[in-house]
């Protein structure tokens, strides 16, 4: 079961902002993310809330899977952004280095990735990601 986040709750992305003023309008599809890092934050929030529609909508067509099934037993608990390259409002590509932490039946875990984003027709899309070099 996914958590319910109310408009005045803190956003799951960890920005410190309230949900309605942070990721909510982006996840709902009411607006697009102005930067690659904000898209990353909204995608983390979508994972935390089980919102596959937003994840697929913001996945670049060249790498987007046909379907996406999330594990309802995985609870995404924290997002840390370590670095951003490009990805600003005047860029067409960018990367975001992040670590996402989660809990599951198997215990605690984390996913660290350098995610690649592109902007097409004014909208940011997640392309792919790779684990950072050790």
UniProtKB/TrEMBL annotation:
| A Pfam cross-reference name | YchJ_M-like
Ranges where the YchJ-like middle NTF2-like domain occurs? 35-129
Q: Name the PANTHER family for this protein.
A: ADENYLATE CYCLASE-ASSOCIATED CAP C-TERMINAL DOMAIN-CONTAINING PROTEIN, UPF0225 PROTEIN SCO1677
Similarity comment text for this entry: Belongs to the UPF0225 family.
The name of this protein is: UPF0225 protein HCR76_08960
Task: Tell me what organism the protein belongs to.
Answer: Paramicrobacterium chengjingii
